[in-house]
# Entry
Amino acid sequence: MDDIKEQIVNYLSKRKFLTLATSSKDGEPLTHPIAYVNKEEIVYFSTGTQTRKYKNIIKNPNVAYSIYDPTEHLDEVISVQMQGKASSLTNKKEINEINKMLKQKFPHMSHLIKEPDSVIIKISPKSCYFMDYSKGFGYRDNIEY
# Structure
């Protein structure tokens, strides 16, 4: 695996939350806080089929998300800005595996996974900006998947 892709996977693995961007049926952007797990560069989360994010994803699976650690100093900014394609998991074995990962990472939220209308969403990456301002203000690597 390429060094920058490895850094991205490492960064994803050490965080718990991201901000997901979807668009409404009218094309208006919306953001959603998401608790997630990842396998390599693929991100997964659980949501209900009645949520705005799920309905938006069904209409337009093109999504984006960002993850960063708040800081007071610009030269400390490190961030992942990912564009990807979202889809619902249908394979029972994969669903069970991701549910287990979610329960381990977020034990206090495990009751949400049992909701009858919950689904697992998978975000497959298309492109990513991995920003690291410690290398210079505005520094970013652009990765294509």
The first helix runs from residue 3 to 13. The radius of gyration is 16 Å. The mean pLDDT is 93.
